[in-house]
Amino acid sequence: MRLGVDDAASFGDGGDVDGTTGHFERRSNGKETTYGSLASSLGGVSGSSRRVSADADGPSSSLASPPPLLARFSEHVPRPGSEDARVAGGTLHCVDNMAHEATTADKVQEVADRLGMSDRLRLHVADAYDEDLPATLAPGVEFDMLWIDLGAANRIERFLENWWPRIRCEGGFALVHSTLTNALSRGWLERMREASRREPTPPYGAFDTMSLLEPHKMFQNAVTMFQKRGGVSGRYDEPVHTKYP
């Protein structure tokens, strides 16, 4: 499963700077159908590296009786402890304070029900900036991926430090929107790039980073990916399964 994010909306609604939504789209007969408001300034998946969201912005007919997205897996029983088992148990956690005047985050649960995926969604009505939230949201869960679209700028450094321990050490990701072409975020990003080149130190340890720019856009035109490459027990490297490609 894949999460698509349109930068016209921050994670949870259609706002551009104070943030809450991601949505993905499909095209049918040349028409664009919005499929997905992702409730929140923060999203993470427990137990799986897969993320899915859905939106109710478009006409209800566009979502009329879609087949359950997981139906094709219904007869597959994954081996306990395997990556398939992690995926099968995956959950999308979305955080939104529902404060934006144009929010569609409150529709997410309804659409998840319609898609037959409500068992994969946990919608948390909360302030993503609450510094107690990293300790209280889904205790014991390691997130495989965080999507952060807060319009945070000068607050992103503290925010990511608080949530970093919740990301899976074995290659988990944090994706941060709009990091390259505004001065507030860029200063923080350069410090993170420098930290990734040094010997691993707290609070981040070993990690890799890469940024993608949409050069035709002036605002909200980039995403930076941070991949966690280990924790207190040492560095993480992917296994080698075969000799040849």
How is this structure best described in words?
With 245 residues, this protein is α+β, with helices and mostly antiparallel strands. It has a single domain, classed as Rossmann fold. The protein has five helices and ten strands. The strands form two sheets. Strands 3, 4, 5, 6, 7, 8, 9 and 10 form an eight-stranded mixed beta sheet that branches. A hairpin with an 8-residue loop joins strand 8 (207-213) and strand 9 (222-231). The longest helix has 15 residues, at 183-197. The radius of gyration is 18 Å and the shape is globular.
Short description:
The chain has 245 residues and is of the alpha+beta class.
Features:
245 residues, alpha+beta, two-stranded antiparallel ribbon, Rossmann fold, 16% helix
Low-confidence stretches: 1-65
Helix and strand composition category: alpha+beta
Q: What is the total number of structural domains?
A: 1
Question: What Rg do the Cα atoms give?
Answer: 18 Å
Oligomerization state of this entry? single chain
CATH level 3 topology: Rossmann fold
Into which percentage range does the β-strand content fall?
A: 15-25%
Question: What's the SSE pattern?
Answer: EEEHEHEHEHEHEEE
Largest sheet: 8 strands, mixed
Provide the CATH architecture. Answer: 3-Layer(aba) Sandwich
- Name the CATH class: Alpha Beta
Total helical elements: 5
The percent of residues in helical segments reads 10-25%
Amino- and carboxy-terminal Cα gap: 24 Å
